[in-house]
TrEMBL record:
The chain crosses the membrane at residues 34-57, 66-84, 109-133, 145-171, 202-223, 235-256. The lineage of its organism: Bacteria, Pseudomonadati, Pseudomonadota, Alphaproteobacteria, Rhodobacterales. It comes from Ketogulonicigenium vulgare (strain WSH-001). This is Putative cell surface polysaccharide export ABC-2 transporter permease protein. GO terms for molecular function: ABC-type transporter activity. GO terms for cellular component: ATP-binding cassette (ABC) transporter complex.
Length: 266
């Protein structure tokens, strides 16, 4: 006779696994090229950034390899963006299957977090692995900093995605508002620059404060600490990012617990 814990966990795990396969097929298609595009697109963007900026400046803002510098900025941002977007739409785009009694809204959320979290982690490892294997980057890896940056990115993407799903349930126009607000994020998240490299007047003024309040800037800085031994990143505050992520997760779960029916109906 199966233990009561396994009797309740195993059916839920089977449901989540089935939802992952369904979401994978719907998102990436049934061809190998569909899933491969998740890897090819970020590498293509990073390559274009490296080539473009190499024509303008002689050396990257940090280190000696353009590809690695922009990869350590773009990949965390892309992970956050993909997770937050996929989770934001997880309930609205799966409303039909919620009619099945064994499927709950939490199953949908966990399935999307697992699929896109694992995918983005695999993309990160693949792109960084290719760069490290084929380029003379001079990087000195700090696994703890890299793991911390990835964990914070996943937590923040999860929290913001849940919060947006909940806010859209109560305020449908928030979907468009967030779309407008999130567009400049890539320019304010340290993907293309170092926070310390800004002019002193900008750092001490309102712009410096606004940038510092962006948690993605801290994640990008922490990720670069994982590859560049000479980078101090004194402005980085991991506890600040963790607090924002945990707050967003808690608020998103609380709001969706009572409003997921509205989120599905939108």
């Amino acid at each position: 006779m199966a233990h009561p814990v396994f009797s309740s966990v195993l059916p839920a795990a089977r449901v989540i696994f089935a939802l992952i396969l369904r979401d994978m097929s719907a998102t990436y298609g049934r061809s190998y090229l569909g899933y491969a595009w998740a890897y090819l697109a970020p590498f293509g963007i990073i390559t274009l950034l490296a080539i473009g900026f190499a024509l303008i400046i002689p050396t990257p803002p940090l280190g000696r390899d353009f590809l690695l510098f922009y990869a350590t900025g773009f990949l965390p941002f892309e992970m956050f963006f993909q997770l937050s977007q996929r989770l934001k739409d997880s309930l609205r785009f799966s409303r039909a299957i919620l009619s099945y009694p064994r499927i709950t809204w939490m199953d949908l959320v966990i399935a999307r977090l697992a699929l896109h979290g694992i995918t983005q982690l695999a993309v990160f490892c693949a792109v960084i692995g290719v760069i490290m294997a084929t380029r003379d980057t001079g990087a000195a890896l700090a696994p703890a900093a890299i793991a911390s940056a990835l964990g914070l990115t996943a937590a923040l993407g999860f929290g913001i995605g849940l919060m947006n799903a909940a806010l859209i349930a109560y305020f449908p126009s928030w979907d468009r508002i967030w779309g407008v607000l999130s567009r400049p994020l890539i320019f304010a998240s340290g993907v293309f620059f170092l926070y310390e490299g800004l002019p002193p007047a900008a750092l001490t003024g309102p712009l410096g404060l606004i940038l510092w309040l962006n948690p993605l800037l801290h994640i990008t800085g922490l990720m670069r600490q994982g590859f560049y031994a000479e980078y101090s990143g004194d402005f980085i505050a991991p506890l600040y990012v963790a607090a924002l992520a945990m707050t967003a997760i808690a608020m998103g779960l609380a709001l969706l617990r009572y409003g997921y029916a509205k989120a599905v109906a939108r």
